[in-house]
Amino acid sequence: MKIILKLARKEIRKHRAMYLFITMQIAITLLIGITCGTIFSNQFAMYRKFHWLMEGDGKFISSMGGVRVPEADVNTGISGTKILEKYMQKTDIISCYHVLGHFMRETLSLDWNITVYDDLLAQSHVPLLQEGEWYQKGNAQRGELRAVISSNAYGIGVGDYISVVPYEEELKEVKVRVIGILDQDAQIIKFQASDNMVSYRNFLNTCDNENGMPTMLFLKSDFSELYDGNGLGENLLWPSGMMFFFYREGIADEERILNDSFIKNYFNAQIEESLSEVRQKSVQYLWEQVWEVLPILVASMLFVMISTISVGVLGTKYALENYRVYNMIGLSQKECSMIQMCINLLILERGVLFVAVTAGVFRAGLEYFGKKSMPEIGIIQFGQCLVMSLVWFLLSYLLQKSVLKDAALWRIEQND
Questions:
Q1: Helices then strands (H, E): number in the chain?
Q2: Higher-confidence residue: 194 or 237?
Q3: I need a labelling partner for 74 at 20 to 30 A (CA). Which of 4, 209, 256, 278 fits?
Q4: CA distances from 261 to 255, 256, 321 (A)
């Protein structure tokens, strides 16, 4: 086996330019495969992250103003969450909220883009953080709120305290502890408009400082623990933004009609969609991403496969004279085929090594420029590279073996 490997390396050195061309073609194909696989896997990961919000029967709405107080409840002091519980029949609700209060740092008034997440939403997606940590059970302290914020001109960072002064005078001022700073490239759960809404891609958006105001995120359960956990903390919240209404099993048609009527009359909803439509459009969008990427991947594979295999077969024909000599010194036609197989393996090894080095340099470059969002080579990308490599190797070997067989080296010997 050593002599065969040695002869394979000799053939590569002899036709260095040709085999370098094949190596680079293989590397480019694998890089295209990894890129296409990364695009698809990112979309699939996002879909899987939010698919539970699209399951079952119900409604999705996006409302910047949130729910309006029904006439019967005006001046009663009822909270927004209690309004939804009262009027939405047999419905479980996952929502975002706004905070009814002023934000202060000592005597300085602070302006923020505020979003409060239901706990399940916050668990679905953890954004990139520049500093600090996301919400965990271990970093909660009863009687205060935890906040994750974006970089801001106020100079507020991790560990700093600010306060919320409720609009409702009966409620006391509440401390807010900053536990994390969002990365500048972070995506947070926030509605993003697009064509053909609504699908899972509309649930994430950048945390750009809108209207010159930085972002501040809260967790709903922290509000429930305020004021000794007596429920008054929820008076600070008002449902607004993205809302998911899940109808429970056994809901009657009359109750559906009442729910639809309440949403129509008491929500300033910019977007309203059934969960079944959201699910259908999400699956449709996911497959659109696959079909956009697939032709590029297939076309590049076919082009490179044909060109590299053709050049490889041509190289085998150029090497026939050497194989004739190898045959004369005692190597069988099978062993000559094994030389060509070793050549293919060595070329493939160098192509994979080139891809690994390129990926490492690319990753190091991203780290150097402070990018925390790194493309990962997961099972999809690995599987694509493996399949592409095996297809190229097998086709090349079989065609080259056929060339050697058709050459009939033993007839060349007889002609001598």
A1: 11, 14
A2: 237
A3: 256
A4: 10, 8, 86
Instruction: Spell out the residues 6+ positions from residue 139 whose beta carbon is closer than 8 angstroms to its own.
Output: 133, 146, 179
Q: Is the pLDDT score of 372 beyond 60?
A: no
Question: Which DSSP letter does residue 74 get?
Answer: T
Q: Report the SS3 class of residue 66.
A: coil
pTM over 0.70, yes/no:
yes
Instruction: Tell me the two tokens of residue 174.
Output: 């509440």
Report the run of H or E that residue 147 belongs to, with start and end.
Answer: strand 144-149
Task: Yes or no: say if 392 and 308 are a contact pair by the CB < 8 Å rule.
Answer: yes
* N-terminal to C-terminal alpha carbon distance within the chain: 29
Residue with tokens 């300085």: 108
The C-alpha torsion from 53 through 58 and 64 to 68, rounded to 10°, is -140
The residue to which tokens 């029967």 are assigned: 57
Whether 355 contacts 377, CB under 8 Å: no
**pLDDT digits 0-9 by tens, 57-96:** 999 999 988 899 999 999 888 899 999 999 999 999 999 9
**Cα distance between residue 244 and residue 58, in whole Å:** 7
User: What are 98-116's pLDDT values in tens digits?
Assistant: 999 999 998 899 999 999 9
Q: Are 201 and 278 in contact (CB under 8 A)?
A: no
> Do residues 94 and 147 touch, judged by C-beta distance below 8 A?
no
CA nearest neighbour of 289 among 44, 54, 51, 45: 44
Three-class DSSP labels, 183-229: CCCCEEECCCCCCCCCCHHHHEEECCCHHHCCEEEEEHHHHHCCHHH
Which secondary structure element, helix H or strand E, spans residue 134, and what is its range? Answer: none
Please tell me the distance from the alpha carbon of residue 102 to that of residue 156, in angstroms, as a whole number: 16
Q: What percent of the chain has pLDDT over 90?
A: 43
